[in-house]
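Course assignment 3, question 2. Fill in each field.
Student: A.L.
Task: Predict the tertiary structure for the chain below.
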Amino acid sequence: MTVSREGTSVTEKDPSPLHAFKQEAATALARASGLDAGMVLELLQAPPRADMGDLAFPCFALAKERKTAPPVIAKEIAAAFSATTLPAGVATVQPAGPYVNLTLDRDLVTRTILDHVLSRGQAYGDQDIGRGKPVVIDYSSPNVAKPFGIGHLRSTVIGAAIVRILRALGHEVFGINHLGDWGTQFGKMMVACQKWGTPGPDDPDPVKTTFELYVRFHQEAESDPSLEEEGRAWFARLEQGDAEARRYWDLLTEIGKKEFARIYDKLGIRFEHFTGESFYNDKLDETVDVLRKKGLLTTSQEAQIVDLSAWDMPPALMKKADDSSLYLTRDLAALFYRYETFRFHRALYVVGMEQTLHFRQLFKVAELLGLEWAKGCEHVPFGLIRFKDGKMSTRKGKVIFLEEVLDRAVEMVRGIIAEKNPDLENKDEVAREVGIGAIVFNDLKHRRVKDVQFDWSEILNFDGKTGPYLQYSHARIGSILRKAGEEPPARVPEGASLSLQEEWDLTLRLADLPSVLRAAGNEAEPSLVSTYILDLAEVFNRYYNLGGKDPALRVLCEDPDVRQARLCLVRAVETVLKKGLSLLGVGTPEKM
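Answer field:
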């Protein structure tokens, strides 16, 4: 493979701009060792210390075959190289115990990687591996009859980040907000409205009123269980098309949807489809008929079920004894509709871990129907948001409204700005981007299956592993570039050199973005992007701080060639930080 200053070609297996150099090295090592080049490429690894080289080839795989000690084999392979046979981008080859260590031509590799990043700009890292592989992703999906609490944050921001990552990989992605706009909770709310009043057009806070009604119903039902039966009866009336029940339902869904729209706007999130549970009501009988015709339905206590005992699962309840539908019925109808409409390659459900059994049942039923595409269905689970005083409970009134959290974060950042940088331009916009970005990043920096601890002192820390820290790092680079008084060149100038170890470390990390995005998309794991850009920012800040010790180590040093090369490097870092933050849904203010 030839290496071009215009950027390296990438393979489906490894999209990094460093990959071409690794392939060249693997091909040469294969000739010297007699192994397959693909196997050598798989075995190449980074040495434990920078002074040992940039790539290491372990010789253990050859020891058994050759009946020779690995250190002896390493010396033989290294001896097979000469100055005329070194592959492009490799500067030295040395044996080191059982390893063959390779040092890369830092000048060539650095130029290639930086030129690639600078030429691609915000498109750097984008790939086309998802072309022709549509993805539907069900996320956020709050219940209309309940408040949009902070407990809904995780599904919302995790799902939105996965959407952006998959689009960067070339997938056509359909984000679906499967609103909880149907179910027994509406019957309960109808009982509450009848007994204790309905939010009217003059209500200053209909969301709060609805929430109070919901909480009161559950408090009263603890001492009067008949309320639960009344709720079920009202929901049955709704399913049967009762006009009064429908009037209550229209009112409650309108209140909920207005609240949701306001919050999604604050988060900068857009959905392609708002198809809540009610959308599938006219498809339920057909769905149940499909199960019946396949011989999967059986009757148990007058309810219709699919027996899943052979797979150590409780029965999948498809219709209650009173003929009303359940979540599982509606989710199966939605799954059929989504495949018929989008012909998806993957169908992702970003829903909490407590629903794991539900999705195991759903996917198993689809599999038993003989649907080949069912293997593309994935539950993307996540943990809880935890507070010092324990778990939230909507029914008991222990809920924190997400909008209040977002607004408080913005106000707290506004206070920090007033204290530390009162003359900052566009203070309100910066406070909004930093405050909301802090909340979003605090969620996405964790592996999604882990619980998230909500702690204001950590979330808004400008020196920790936080959104504000990354935003400040990005703004710091902008300040450097403005101070330079000139745009960095479009590519690293000939004759310019970057010789510091920190510059090499930054360059190698920049090369990792495409591979990180691919892994994040495959695993539906946004925290891989968060971890990557945190590491990049930490290495950049160490590099930046060198200038405080020695003027010659500053980005804006006196040597014009080195200065130009360093400006290219920090522009590339700025590009990648902005790219990573934007994929996560975090803004990047130019000044802070």
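Instructor remarks: The chain is about 50% helix and 10% strand. Residues 48 and 359 are 42 Å apart (CA to CA).
Grade: pending
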